[in-house]
Amino acid sequence: MNSKKKINLPLITTVGPVSAWMILLVAIPFVYVFAMSFMNKGAYGGVVIGFTLNNFMQVFDPLYLKVFAGSLLISAFATIICIIVAYPFTYFIAQKTTIKKTVFMAMVIVPFLVSSLIRLFGWINLLRKDGVVNSLLLKLGLINEPLQLVYNTTGVMIGLVYMLLPFMILPLYSSIEKLDKSLLEACSDLGAKPVTSFIKVTLPLTMPGIFAGSILVFIPALGYFFVTDLLGGSKTQVIGNIIRTQFITARNWPLGSAISIFLIVITLILVWLYQKSGGNMDDLGGM
To answer: What residue range is the signal peptide (predicted)?
Structure first.
């Protein structure tokens, strides 16, 4: 009996705190939001106990569906841009020595030690009409008048790509680092051109990293309302903006909860599609 207690004690001490943390900060809030999504809004805000499906019916209002479609489109473009930027960069650093790899990865991670808001305000200073980017382009004679690079969709895309690029680089680096270089050498010995080797060998073998990175970029992009608020000037809306508005401005917590559940469902569908495509959940959890 004593031996069993000794065996179970380490398990309780390691798993117990994590389980309690997940129950307290994940499971209970989720159940609370889920239950609230079926309740009614009070006359002056707040929640009235009751059961209704009206909140979920409002989610499919054409106005909200338009925002949802726009959110999916913005997230998709941000994901594609992240892939285009991250893949060559990650492939480049994967070929370097261990010290250089560490330096490059530190350059990716260290900026995230600074507050997201501070970094986004830095981008506003860079992109505004009298900012560094427009001033440099004007001096080089590449443009005749300042470009509108912020407070629009362009600014939102720049902000999302900047904020989420590391989430694409890290899983890609893991996949490319595991790539068997002997396969590329075999392709070269058999007369395959570099482009052919990339399409036939490198790309398929690193596809799990692309899938994992896409999930890690696409899903947060749907809810990063602070990026659209700062760099979009509230002109560009994503699902996160609608949820924020319902909770804080409209004080319609039941509708905000219903939209939150809708976003969670979208997330679960994307993760399910990722698993169906052969993705490994460890690639997502490890990030």
So the answer is: none
